[in-house]
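Handout for the seminar on molecular recognition.
Each group receives one record of this type.
Step one: identify the two inputs.
Step two: read the structure output and locate the region that could contact pyridoxal-5'-phosphate.
Step three: write two sentences on what you found, then compare them with the reference statements printed after the record.
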Amino acid sequence: MRKIEFFRHSISKDDIKRVNNILKSLFLTTGEEVEKFEQKFSNYIGKRYTIGLTSCTAALHLSLIALGIGPGDEVITTPLSFCATANAILHAGARPVFVDVEEETGNLNAEFIEPAITEKTKAIIPVHLYGQMCDMKNIKKIAKQYNLKIIEDAAHAIEASRDGIRVGQLSDTACFSFYATKNITSGEGGAVITDSVTLAEALRMLRLHGINKDAAERYTKHYQHWDMLTLGWKYNMANIHAALLIGQLARIESLWRKRNRLWNIYEEGLKKIKDIRLLKTLPNLKHARHLFTVLVPPKKRDFLLWALQERGIGVAVNYRPIHLLGYYQKTFGYKIGDFPITEEIGEMTISLPLYPSLTKDEVKYIVKTLKDELNK
Ligand SMILES: *Cc1c(COP(=O)(O)O)cnc(C)c1O
């Protein structure tokens, strides 16, 4: 039987060599290699500052803290995301306020933001779902009118742009993930970007306990005294991880082109199947092509998840709605029916393999298998 994993990374021999060089060097934690990565990432996105972190969750958390958001505050976000998005709001001591998504794209619906705003609302966290950017122009307009901060959850969307706007361009900060299955990966890792020097300095301090000198400054050349100025966390990216990311970042566009070609083959093969609905890629944007999802009839979804795996195909579900996860129901009293479009997508969605080393032939096999199993 064939075996098509849900994800395979694209680490090259040169990436491994680069990590090896770090391992043979003196300095494994945050130092020159992280700075190099931050510089390159800033150049790629077109933002002044990148702060390398251990995860996107950390990036979201520190963004909220650095923007002064905490207990008593509300943050508007989508329930159709990984739980990290809403958890970060809780970590900051604030309260997530969910609004439902667009039927066509699964992205947070900008039209639902205004009715959800209260006196306590301080920020919006849009999530660029599966790699397609939210309507940032409209979100920015609303944020401006109500004096709200914007933190982008761009875990899926490093390569994305929309209406001439690059990811991160209209927000206070944007947050990225280099988790094991993301478009570029160091196993675990993350970054936050901003144009504000004040925010960048705050974020840099907050990622390392609130200390005003990082390890490289403290221990290379001569020991320097340091002070702790605020209570921070331990979220700093290490040189080992940065080394793994630098080569992938240099190849990011060619990796994207490969996924884009596979995406088109999927769409071509699936669009005519009666029982399958595909989310729409809007015009005027570059989709980061992170996750390829299909919507199938809810009654058949769990059978299909099982059947595809039985035939050697790795699958995932992105996502079952956050508001219906046990903790959120228990803590906030959410129930079925609160966000119907999110729930509908949550019951219908299956994510199929999508990564540069996946072959056309494998995509065709997946399409055929899905068709066969749907007709059973
Ligand atoms: C993966 C992911 C995160 C969390 O990223 P980590 O780096 O694992 O913390 C947050 N939001 C979304 C949408 C994600 O897919």
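Reference statements: The chain has a mean pLDDT of 97. The first helix runs from residue 13 to 24.
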